[in-house]
Prior knowledge:
The chain is of the alpha+beta class. It has 11 helices and 22 strands. The chain is 22% helix and 26% strand.
Amino acid sequence: MTLRIDRRSLILTGTLGLGALAIPGFALAQSLARGFTHSVASGEPGPDTMLLWTRYVPVSGGPVKLKAEISKTEDFARIVSGGEQITGPWRDHTAKITVQGLEPGTDYFYRFVAPDGSFSPVGRTKTLPVGNTARFGIGIFSCSNLPFGYFNAYGHAAARKDIDLWVHLGDYLYEYKAGGYGPKDGPVGGRSPEPAGEIILLADYRLRYASYRSDPDLQELHRVKPMLVQMDDHESANNSREMSAQNNQPGEADWNDRKAAALQAFKEWMPVSETPWGSYDIGGLATLFRTESRLLYRSDEPELGPLFRSADAQKALIEFRDGALQDPARTMLGTEQEAWLGHAMKKSVRAGQKWQVVGFGTIMGKQRMPENAMDWIKADAGAGTKAYVQAGVTASKLGLPSDLDNWGGFPAARARFLKSAQAANANLLVICGDSHNAWAFDLGQDGKPAGVEFAGHSVTSPGYENGSSTDPRIIAAALVATNPELKWCDTSRRGYMALTLTPEKATNDWVFMDTILQRTTKASVGHTATVTRGRNVMA
């Protein structure tokens, strides 16, 4: 395969090997297989450390000791580091070994060795640089729903040589039962994940990860470069928070039990450490901050339905806007993480890091619904969809955000974070996912620039196009006109973001796949945004 890259078009030519396509029943068969079942992965890199992941099921099904080997050459003629771990059914036969003593900014090959002498597939990874760094590339993903289409964004990115690190900002998988959230004509290519029911118990979450990780493009993405992974809501249940979730229905499960099961499976199947947040210095170029903004501290989401049904809905909404919504106790991150992040940004700036890149699950830029949004809805849309959009229009006319599940529902917490970035004199780049659409915001606080936000579109999950037949350009123009912080958006295409950092500029490409309905890696750069260091607004 040959990758040709220019500033406006990314095209991958050649044919894709069929590999282990995600087809009904394959994930279940793979999860029950013996030996190395789901390839390898690496994550949370440091200048001299790397976390390595695999899954190995012995014939006995019991405990087994695995060994990791890492080398500068693919023939493993000289093993430079490694480690050992005992795994078994108590952790779904997954293994995570952090190897030490590596060299900064260096490419490595790694593999796992089983007691019978068999080897895992060989992975590639790279440590973080130290000192002056002229360039660093980051591939950014979110919202990968198996039934909606092929993970072409993963396959496209995995073939690139100009990206050093993957970041996945959440919704790595979805919790719904078959047909619960997918195309109305059925799963694309028969891509229906196991188990068929909604995932609620630990065994369900484990099998759903096994199902998603059977996808060959996702396996290749993990195999070739390290990844930083954060949770959003669908790794547990839709619109999840500390004390509840919209999609944890009465009678399904105690929320604390379900949340614990989701967290356990996530930590088993992802190349992640036990720490819920962390920072990663990219030489003297940038600090990348991994955060947790879902299950640990996030306040409950207000229900506006009762306000709309009250005798004086407008008065009730205004009282909510000026009262409960502004409560400073409402939090995304919790006071401990807020304090850590504020101090860590100051430390990064004082250390001379050029950029402070913060990953969140949901959008921070201010969003309101345009007054003509009802015109976008398809004529055959359900009553629920029409009511939802109409409520959004009504709320937006009163100055309420269009989405209370993102930072719009936490204005005091948002202000605290942006003020801390301003106080640190940070060159702030916020990256996020969740919405399925592509956005570029200039973030302001108290009338002054505070940073920019690059919000990523989904790998496959549908955006505005799922319920609208309106020209996406008309929708985008109305959204930009309604929201002063929003400088550009696209609401109809799927893919990933590619962020390139240099000492003086940060450049973000929104890469759009030609299609997700067939397995292909044809793509193009649909938009590019640039930030000059010291300005905190897009050029």
